[in-house]
Design brief:
Transferase(Phosphotransferase), domain 1; mainly alpha; 49% helix; 12 helices; 8% strand; 283 residues
Length: 283
Amino acid sequence: MGASSIRGATVPSYLHRHGVPNVLAPLATATGAPYVLVDGFALALYPMLAGRVGAAVGLSPAQWRQLGATVHQLHAVPLTPQLARLVEREAFRPTRRELFTGLEALLPAAASDPVVGELARFWRARKEIIGALVGRADALGQQLARASFAQVLCHADLHTWNVLVDADGQLWILDWDEAILAPKERDLMFVVGGIGHGLVRPGDTDCFFQGYGQASIDPDLLAYYRCAWAVQDIAAYGEQALMAPGLSAASRRAAVEGFMDLFASGNIVDLAQVSDTTGAAGA
């Protein structure tokens, strides 16, 4: 029974009951629960929604304002002790950080592999860049873990691939599996600089904050979250390509392509590298 699956159903159900709009929540079971347990799996049923992915179609200024207002309500919602126990707290350590030693040990042998050899050679050519990102995420994470920040309920994966736009122009936020108690910058990173080319423009950011309201943003938190996102994506694609031999060749090749795309101009590695002490990121 995965905690993320339970969290992914429980959090949107809780937000829906507390009047947070634009949250796609599961239908309640006969007992009022957001999911049922079947053979150790948490199963949730969601309403059918005909919509388009926000990242693919783009959000209008009004929709960015709508998203900002929704995220403001998300960050203000009070948590019950039960929900607070279910949702993890920010630890300032990137997901999959522990994989790097094992991944790097696999690179020499993988270099001659016909499927993932390109990834191995690409990684080794950018070893210094990757090492600097991991080192910066570690250093910032250790620094921030010693500090004290107000923590709010965050979606934690709030890019517009997780936003649907229905036929009426209404927004719906999906995929709450990563919800976490963290500083608000955990979510705001996605709209202040963003995580990839074309996902957010300066005008989009302005519209978002027209809906969200004024916010004091910590630049070190933004810099950490952007580095941590780069680190977790590098490790995730590396894991799929190098540590999952049961995957098909096509899936492993897709992981190689995804890995290399992280380093493309304007994507997350580029953004993390140029993110400076003001928390700014290149467009």
